[in-house]
# Entry
Amino acid sequence: MRIAIIDGTPEEVSGLETILKNLSENLHTFFDITTFSDSDEFISRFKKNDFEVIFADICTSGTETIKSLRKLDRHCVIIFLASTSEHMPFAFSCHAFEYIQKPFTTERIINVMTEALEILPAESRYIEFISNRQTVRAFLNDIVSVVTDAHYLDITILNGKKYHCRMTMPEFLKKTGTDPRFIPINRGITVNAEHIIKFENNCCIIRNGTKFPVRVRESALVEQMARDYNFEKTLRHQQTIPEK
# Structure
């Protein structure tokens, strides 16, 4: 997840960065944080879809910068930072996600970011596991399939690489936070709905060409789970912020 901070006060920027980095580690969600000390630097470099979340100090960013930002990108989450509540009407006229008064607290930032994560795409979430005596960090979106092999799992990644790690399927699913994109299609086989091409002849065909058998008695349920996930994903992508 790419996050921008527009704030001219170094101490506050440092404090916010620390909170976000700690939250990133706790949630196993990668935050790529870029800071800007003035609005001119930000707006000169900004392009649509550069950031999912933008923390903007109203005194540093200014109203014109926010207006320009919203014209360029209607979908990013804008979180205002301000010393008083006087700019609140303007903030929400720009469809800000939240308005945080300074001095902010760690709890306040965590609560707002937790709420923001619920409406943002989950591409930045990852898990860690041990394979070949090394710690592997894999983004959930890149995991194609997980197959049980005795007391181990074979985890296949989008680039074709396969990791052999000592873990049970329930342990894997728990690590993902029971992420809905991971669908158990047969005993010891879980696939990522993001990479399913189609179901055919009681088989689940994955983007890389692999075919996995689907439990015959539960094939309808498995296919419905995949459709439900993609339907919810489509709804999230269709959510737009009205232009002013």
User: Anything to note?
Assistant: The chain has seven helices and 15 strands. Confidence is low (pLDDT under 50) at residues 239-244.
